[in-house]
Structure formats: structure tokens, C-alpha cells
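Ticket closed. Logging final result for ABC-2 family transporter protein.
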Amino acid sequence: MLWLTWRQHRTQILVTGGLLLALGLLLLVSGLRATAYISEHAPSGCPGPAAACSGVNSTIYDDYYHPVFMVFGLLPLVGSALVGTFWGAPLLAAEFERGTNALAWTQSVSPRRWLLAKLGLLGGMVVVAALVLSAMISAWLPVFHGAVGDKTLEPGTFTITGVVPAAWWLFAFVLGAAAGTLFRRTLAAMAVTVALIALTIPVVFFSRDSYAEPVRTVTTGWTALYDRGGSLVRDAWVTPAGQEVVTLPDGVCPPPPGVDARSERAQLLKDGCLIGEGYRKAVYHHPPERFWRFQWTETGILLTGALALGGLAVTRTLRRRN
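Final structure:
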């Protein structure tokens, strides 16, 4: 079964391996270039939050971090869609279209073993590939912490580090395989897989804040909580009397004459005025220490979905054969 699986799916395996190698080289070159720039041009103590580091931080972000991160920022959608479309959907649908499943079932290998071998072997490869990519990105990110801050729970970073990428790719793979058993046409299974992944991703992304009750912190410098790698859920003002309000009373700290009330400068002036008047910010957030708790929560959700879809694929295939 191992040799047959390799013969049937070597194109996907080799292309995926080549893409991982290319992405790894991109990360390596980007990290080395950023490190060289820092050693040659950054003043002492930079990159970092100090005002003197703003120029260095901007250069590192614009030239070395942002262009590469934009490529990997697409992975939650594009990576899962590619795995589901080109690994999962053709896995069983192509066999049914060509009729090669009937040939396999006439050999000494039982249909159940044939199914489990295909799903298990290729699913394991998908998981390993995702973990390799996650490890490469996790090794690349610390180079830029001084310039861009800690992005531990930022949605884009959270989804491409840790174990969540493996869960997403495995879910997409099994979803594609299940679609193949339902429609038995490769193109139809591919289309359904992409559509369902596009629907699932925003549902999971927007539910992350509910993985745990957010921490409430009353502070005057709420942005520091976010800069340390946390995730902001919402915020509100706390009056000098201790009452939490979402909307401030009319006439409190109006903008100075000649300043557009909708401008960023007006907002900064208003925030400073409110702090001076005794107001504070109530910030509801998730601290970066919850990274692994959230990782395993989302992984559990996706693995549950993958197990259900895998059971559907196996049951549907065996039932139709019988």
C-alpha cells in the first residue's frame, strides 16, 4: 500500500515538498538580511520601542518583514484550500471516476484497509508538512520582535504557528476526501471543498474570543497590553466614579478649535484630556500566556470536525460498495 500510495500521489507530495523548500529559503533569506541590516545600521538598543528606533523599525518592517508576512498571511485560506483541493478532493473522487477503486478491492487488500491506508498515510504527510512550515515560521518571527512587537495572538500569526496549521490542513484534507465520496466527481468535490473552507475559516476566526473569558484590566496605557502579544476583545471608558460606559457624556473633552473631531490627532488629544480628568480605560483582552490554551482549543475543534468527516467518508464508501 505504501508503494502504491506513493505512485498515485507522488505529484502532490513532490510539489508540496518543493513549495516547503521554497518557503523555507524565503524565510531564511529574509531573516538573514534583516539580521545583517540590524547589525550594520541599527543604533544601540534598536530595534525596539524607543522613539530613536522608529526609523530602523520602519525600515525593517517595510523592507524585510511585511513583504514576507503578506505571503504567509494568506496561508490560513490559501494553504487549507490547496490541501483540500489537491490532496483531499481527488483522493477518492478520482478513484471513483476512473474505476480504479474496484480494481483495488479485488486484490488482497480489504476496502476498509485501503481507505484507512490512503487517509492515514496522506493525512499524516499533510500534518508533518504543516508542522514543518509552522516550525520554520516560528523560528523566523523572533528576528522581528524588536521592530514589530510581539504578535503572539494576532490572528494572522496565531494561525500559522504552533499546532493549529496542522489541524487546519488535516481538516481541509479530510473535508476534501469526504466531498469526494459524496459527489464522486473530482471537479465537483474541489469546488465544494473550497466553498466550505471559505465558510469555515471566518466562523472559527471570529469565535476565538469565546475560547476563554477575557481578562479585564483598568489602565491608562491599554495599547501596551496589545503590544505584548495579547488580543484585544473590546474596551470601554471608566468614569472617575467607577462606572463603566461605552459612550461618553456630551461635552466631555471636546476637540480644540481648528482640529477636526474625526482626525487621529483629535482622538489622541481627547484621550489625554480624559485621562487628565480622571477617566480610565477598561480593557477586555486575552494575554499572550493563553497562546497554547487557544491553540489546543482550536485544534480540538478542528480535529473533531476531521474525525466526523473521516467517519463519513469511510462509512459512505463502504456502504455504497455493499
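The radius of gyration is 25 Å. No further action required.
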